[in-house]
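ARCHIVE CARD
CATEGORY: sequence design from structure
SOURCE FIELD: tokenized fold
FIELD CONTENT:
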């Protein structure tokens, strides 16, 4: 059953893939091309409250996700932000950072925060068609751990 944070970020339409304990979803607002949310499925509102299994699986998810995002987005850096100010379920915003603009499906992605912190409020808000295309493209090259 999806938790409120998964639903807020468009579950199931935005889901790239899921593991036993994590959901990998396209972030509809894209401060960097290929931005995702990585949401824990456990009922936890603090990082330290996650089970050892969730921590172990997180490592495997990140290790498998980064090469796929690199291939898709050609990022220069990658940021993981755990803010949890509005959405209480444990989750990360995964923001591929790029010095130069990227284009996908007719949409141009400019990293407005480069080289500083990501500008989370900037970037295109993807429509359903572009979310589906991005989800399909990333799912095709990501191998679940």
């Amino acid at each position: 059953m999806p938790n409120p944070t998964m639903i807020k970020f468009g579950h199931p339409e935005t889901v790239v893939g899921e593991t036993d304990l994590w959901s990998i979803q396209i972030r509809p607002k894209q401060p960097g091309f290929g931005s995702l949310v990585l949401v824990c499925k456990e009922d936890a509102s603090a990082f330290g409250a996650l089970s050892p299994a969730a921590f172990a699986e997180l490592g495997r998810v990140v290790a498998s996700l980064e090469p796929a995002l690199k291939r898709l987005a050609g990022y220069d850096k990658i940021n993981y932000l755990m803010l949890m100010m509005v959405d209480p379920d444990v989750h990360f915003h995964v923001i591929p950072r790029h010095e130069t603009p990227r284009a996908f499906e007719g949409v141009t992605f400019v990293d407005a925060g480069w080289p500083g912190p990501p500008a989370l409020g900037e970037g295109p808000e993807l429509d359903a068609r572009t979310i589906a295309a991005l989800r399909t493209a990333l799912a095709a090259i990501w191998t679940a751990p």
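CARD ANNOTATION: DSSP finds three helices and seven strands in the chain. The longest strand covers residues 91-97.
SHELF: design records, drawer C
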